[in-house]
Amino acid sequence: WFNRSCWLIGDIPRTGDYVSFESASRNGSYTVTYDENYTSSLIRLDVGYGPGGVAHFLITNPAARIETGSMYVGASSADTGGGHGTVLQTAGFVQVNRALDTSSWPAASWAGNLYLGLHALDTGSYTLAGGTLSTGGTIVGYESVISDGDMPAFIHNSTTGVSSNAIHETGSLTVAFMPNSRGSYVLGAGMLASFDQTIGIA
Known about the structure:
Layout: E1 17-22, E2 29-34, E3 39-49, E4 54-59, E5 65-68, E6 71-75, E7 84-89, E8 93-96, E9 113-116, E10 123-128, E11 131-135, E12 137-140, E13 153-156, E14 166-175, E15 184-187, E16 191-199
Parallel strand pairs: 1-3, 2-4, 3-5, 3-6, 4-7, 5-8, 6-9, 7-10, 8-11, 9-12, 10-13, 11-14, 12-14, 13-15, 14-16
């Protein structure tokens, strides 16, 4: 993240930017690491957008802070499909806050949420091993029909074995949102605080 030469604009993202790690950007897979004491405030963050390889995002610094209006892990336009992304958070604070999305595009109505596996052939995973994740809503498998080992998944398990070291706060947790969609949420050592939980909404 902090290597300026890796970004098309020649600099790291700034406040109000829309950041997308595209699956097709590289052959195979690539990894972006957020490993410094730094706060990023974004409109939207995509990890693994579009068909191609796999985009991996690692968040490792205890003082790291990422704020975004919406977050998609494994996403695409509906007609292409095949987005594949993963997030591993071992420390720091990640917040998905609707108020940060000041865009006017239609998808802004979905702001405030974390989506894993947006469309039918997309898949994404989020592993929360440390730190805090705060979202307005968390949707594991919105339309994704990917099954077996590649289905959208949220793995919530503190590497230290202490639940308070891996906290997921969300207004609502939904697993498998649309008909025939797939998803899983695995809670090991961790703390989940949610006002509402739905398994198989449609």
